[in-house]
C-alpha cells in the first residue's frame, strides 16, 4: 500500500519537474528531502512514514516553487540567490552539527532550522523591494551592516546554529546508538 502511494507521488513529481525549467530549485528540494530522511533516521521513525513524508514534502515544495516561478515576482538572479540563502539558513546548521556534534538531537535540529529560516525570511521580507510590496511595508529600508537581501542567510545560519546548540543542550541527548553512529561518520 505504501509503495503504491510512493509510485503515485513519484509520477506527480515527474509532472511537476517539467514545470520547473530554468530554476535550480530541484537541487534544493532534493537536499530538503535528504535532510528529512536524516532527521527521521535519527528519531527512529518507521521507514515507510519517512519515505511518504519526504515525498509529500517534495511535492509541496516543487508545487510552491512552480507557482512562484509562474508569477515572475522578481528577476531570476534574486530567486536563485534567495533559494540558496533560504536553504543554507535552514539546512546548514542541522546538517553540519548533526554530523560533527554527537550531542545534537532532533529537537535542536528542528528548532535550529525554523529559527534560521525565520530570521532569513524576516530579513528578506523587510529589505527586498518586491517582498516589501507584498507585505505592504513602508518606510526606509534598513540593511543590517549593508548586507543585501539575497545574502540573508548570513544572519540565518549563525542564529540556526546557536538555537540548535542551546535546544540540544536543554533537551535529553540522543540515544547512545545514534551518538555512536555520528562518531562513525
Question: How would you describe what is shown here?
Answer:
By secondary structure, the protein is mostly helical. It has eight helices and no strands. About 5% of the residues have low confidence.
Kindly list the characteristics that best describe this protein.
185 residues; mainly alpha
**Count of distinct strands:** 0
Mean pLDDT: 75
Biggest sheet, open or closed, and with what strands and sense? Answer: none
- Helical stretch tally: 8
The residue ranges in which pLDDT falls below 50 over 5 or more consecutive positions are 15-23
User: In sequence order, what are the helices and strands, one letter per element?
Assistant: HHHHHHHH
The end-to-end span amounts to: 34 Å
Radius of gyration from the alpha-carbon trace, in angstroms: 18 Å
Helical fraction: over 70%
Based on Cα principal axes, name the global outline: globular
Taken as a percent bin, the fraction of beta residues is under 5%
Q: Based on helices, strands and strand pairing, what is the structural class?
A: mainly alpha
Quick structural overview:
It is built from eight helices and no strands. By secondary structure, it is an all-alpha fold.
List the helices and strands and how they pair.
Elements: H1 2-18, H2 25-42, H3 47-71, H4 76-100, H5 106-127, H6 129-134, H7 153-170, H8 176-184
